[in-house]
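Standup notes, protein team

Yesterday: finished cleaning the Paraphoma chrysanthemicola set.
Today: Indoleamine 2,3-dioxygenase structure.
Blockers: none.

Input for Indoleamine 2,3-dioxygenase:
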Amino acid sequence: MLSSPFVLLAIAALAYKLWQAFYISNDKNSKVSSKLKALERSHETGGALSNMVQADGAGSWPPKATHGAGWPSELLPFHEIYLEMIPLLSSSNPSLDDAVNIERRDQFRALMSKKLNERVDMARVQALVSSIEAGNWSGCSRQAYNGFYCCIGVLRHSYRWAIIPLVKVVQEERIIEFPAQLETTWRHLQRTFGVDSDSGSNTSNVLLNFNQKGERAYKINLEISELVTSTEEAFFRMFYDVEVMAYPMYQKMVAAYISYEQGKKGECLKHMEDINSQLRELLRVFYQNLVESRVAKGVWLSYCQSFQAWGAGRMINGEYVEFDGVSGSHNLCFMVIDAFLGMKSYMNDQNLGRYIPQNQRNLISTFRRNSFFDRLHGDEDKEISDQFGKIIQHLKVFRSAHRARVMPYLAQPAPERMMMTAGKSFNEPGNDDAHLKVLDNMLVSRLKDTIAMASKLLS
Ligand code: HEM
Ligand SMILES: *[C@@H]1O[C@H](CO)[C@@H](O)[C@H](O)[C@H]1NC(C)=O
Ligand SMILES: CC(=O)N[C@H]1CO[C@H](CO)[C@@H](O)[C@@H]1O
């Protein structure tokens, strides 16, 4: 039946149609993107954006990532092992008994090590990660490697904590011996992405955990409760969604830089207006989702934040160096907006180097260097200046809202642990209120810097 000439003809015709459709749509896409690229490349800021998107993002932003699918076979065991370990990681009744917790921790780590030893062919993995670090990507696509980066990041966090909600005895460990499979791979990955922390970052653990359909691959808690599942989902999705909204805004910023420099003030004003409406939509992600009905205070600290913390380190050149965990301040979009205003960075250089990949840092510093905020000329640029004022107003509102909303999340009781936030690893026992005050001061000081930007505009 299949060999009948009619069927073959029909198949050939269909194949031709499909090929044509693909060819044409491809052609159209490549025309649009080459136009965009020409514009982008014509300016330093556009060059930095397109660099980041092409390299780190595998051509998209947020970055493309695949988890297991399309991976070289030598990397697959890592993916499978993480998925097998999740059910053992989290539990609905954290114990307050140190001995029980020590035993649970040791069993978890021993099992993960055993699986890694038995199933990972380190010689092949080593060959692959070193050739990628040397710039040879023929053995693995960028999107597969992005997903792999996330996988090793979450494997390390799960090995570090071993018990979710995290517990005191594990917090007290300051130096962790990681299995070689999670250590050598991580060093290569960190050099390839251009960051140097032992812990994961917002990019590795959160952003690259989503595929292009917006599905999150490596979860933390399975079947603890409906509330934990929905809180985990809503919380992490915010960080992906803001980046989805941010990409067109980055492009408008590039367009604003270009038109301002070319003296096309009318065009620039139009871009500034677009940036403001994009920013308003982007912030809506935060306002609508960081609410009790989506992210529940009673479970957030223990079940979601726990995993992203770090608070451990190692000896480097004879000195103990400690790393923090994942923080909201790692968010690319807020750093880019600050840079567009020419505002000084919230994070210091050391932390930028630890947690923010090289191409993201390059985008931020290029945007900051090119900022025309300080170059506005009085009345002549009044309308553009007003648009800057609106951006600052959005940021002021965001920063006050963020401060008001996040503090109660951090102040939740968690008797199984000592005070610690993901971003800042205070983990000495002591006065919790004093610790919260330190964090609050950081947020207040950033709010003050933002308000100072507004008064700069009026003077
Ligand atoms: C329960 C949820 C959250 C808590 C408890 C929290 C807590 C904090 C804390 C304590 C800081 C200051 C310390 C540090 O730099 O790490 C901070 C900074 C920051 N967070 Fe959050 N955060 C939460 C959610 C978010 C979300 C959803 C976003 C954005 C989508 C966000 C964006 C930021 C930014 C941009 C900073 C840097 C400071 C600034 O630019 O003003 N945070 N967060
Ligand atoms: C690049 O890597 C592939 C596989 O990962 C390898 O087969 C090939 O020989 C490498 N090419 C060069 C030029 O090193
Ligand atoms: C992408 C991203 O920014 N994710 C992290 C940001 O910070 C929060 C708050 O600490 C983390 O929990 C997210 O994982």
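Follow-up from PR in the comments: Strands lie at 312-316, 319-323.
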